[in-house]
């Protein structure tokens, strides 16, 4: 049977893969090798397993926060001007044209 440290390590690696933005081929291999070395040095340490579980909980919570933020607040990553236009469109209005915009055309 595998140790709690190994189980926690595997779960953290899976969570990192789920949260990664870049494809696996383009990720920095130094991060993975450093993480593996850290595990190998501390595999018998119970506090390390506890720390790994805390890191796993944090990463999972961060990923879920981003998912929920994207789902329930789709305007969070827009600039203030884009947010105002999107909000006006949502209620069926268009933003008035500024006189400075007419001079540019």
TrEMBL record:
<dbReference type="InterPro" id="IPR039196">
    <property type="entry name" value="Fmc1"/>
</dbReference>
<dbReference type="GO" id="GO:0005759">
    <property type="term" value="C:mitochondrial matrix"/>
</dbReference>
<dbReference type="Pfam" id="PF13233">
    <property type="entry name" value="Complex1_LYR_2"/>
</dbReference>
<protein>
    <submittedName>
        <fullName>LYR motif-containing protein</fullName>
    </submittedName>
</protein>
<dbReference type="GO" id="GO:0033615">
    <property type="term" value="P:mitochondrial proton-transporting ATP synthase complex assembly"/>
</dbReference>
């Amino acid at each position: 049977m595998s140790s709690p440290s190994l189980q926690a390590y595997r779960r953290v690696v899976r969570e990192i893969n789920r949260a990664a933005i870049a494809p696996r081929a383009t990720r920095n291999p130094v991060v993975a090798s450093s993480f593996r070395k850290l595990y190998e040095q501390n595999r018998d340490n119970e506090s390390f397993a506890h720390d790994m579980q805390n890191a796993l909980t944090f990463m999972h919570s961060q990923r879920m926060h981003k998912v929920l933020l994207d789902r329930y607040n789709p305007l969070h990553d827009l600039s203030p001007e884009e947010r105002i236009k999107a909000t006006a469109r949502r209620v069926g209005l268009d933003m008035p044209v500024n006189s400075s915009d007419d001079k540019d055309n």
